[in-house]
Design a protein that fits this description.
alpha/beta; seven-stranded mixed sheet; globular
């Protein structure tokens, strides 16, 4: 299977797009501003969107995507998330004030979009790829995801901070090949990282000490544009064991 990185930055600006990844041609893992790089034909193919949490940098493109292609499709786009996230999307985004409620447009029985609640540990099989929500520890309810092709698994932490429950699950994945993990701040902002429940290089180093699988590829996401080089330098200094690499836009990971 192929996972294409549409966006992996902690903000916007020239060449920077927020978190969004395209699995094969029809599944989005988060729907940040990177989705806007797809053309209409590519947007038309998206049937499923898996959301880690409700923060805007991970959901911003859902309203535009549904508005752009909903009337061109013969079935709704399904948005998968834990119930707490779906509640936020319904109450604060698709609420007829910020954006129309596409769960009932054009009709309740034939909407352009539908919500599907998921739960940690419960796997969903989509065309041979098994997608399992994983524990995350963020400032609002959140999850990560395991994407299992059968040959290998790729794990995406989503936005998170220190979380022992996550590593208990990850260390049991026999075919783990790839880990995408965040570092939203540099070490100079460790207090802000702790307060906002993100990682910085020193916290990341502590977390990776809990990983018992040394032979996997690790990629760093959610880097802020203005401190990307500094953050990656700090990571290289304190996480030499795994040699993490910077995740980049348009990168394709096959697993």
């Amino acid at each position: 299977m192929k996972l294409k990185i549409l966006g992996c930055s902690g903000g916007i600006g020239a060449g920077s797009y927020t978190t969004s990844m395209l699995l094969e041609t029809d599944v989005l893992i988060d729907a940040g501003t990177g989705v806007g790089k797809l053309d209409i034909a590519e947007l038309m193919q998206i049937d499923h969107i898996f959301i880690t949490h409700a923060h805007l940098d991970h959901v911003a493109s859902i309203p535009f995507l549904v508005d752009t292609v909903g009337h061109r499709r013969n079935k709704p786009i399904t948005v998968y998330a834990i119930q707490e996230t779906l509640d936020v999307l319904q109450q604060h985004l698709f609420n007829w004030k910020v954006w129309p409620d596409f769960n009932v447009i054009p009709t309740k029985n034939a909407p352009y979009m539908q919500f599907c609640p998921i739960s940690v540990g419960t796997m969903i099989n989509l065309n041979g790829c098994k997608i399992t929500p994983l524990p995350a520890n963020h400032s609002i309810p959140a999850v990560g995801f395991q994407l299992n092709s059968g040959k290998k698994s790729l794990v995406f932490t989503g936005d998170t901070t220190s979380n022992n429950d996550f590593w208990v699950v990850v260390n049991q994945i026999e075919n783990l090949g790839y880990l995408i993990i965040e570092s939203a701040f540099s070490n100079q902002d460790i207090e802000l990282a702790i307060k906002s429940k993100h990682l910085c290089p020193s916290l990341l180093a502590d977390e990776l000490q809990k990983l018992t699988k040394p032979d996997i590829e690790i990629y760093i996401t959610h880097l802020r544009q203005e401190i990307t080089d500094l953050t990656m330098h700090e990571i290289a200094s304190c996480v030499s064991k795994f040699n993490p690499q910077q995740l980049i836009n348009d990168q394709v990971i096959e697993f």
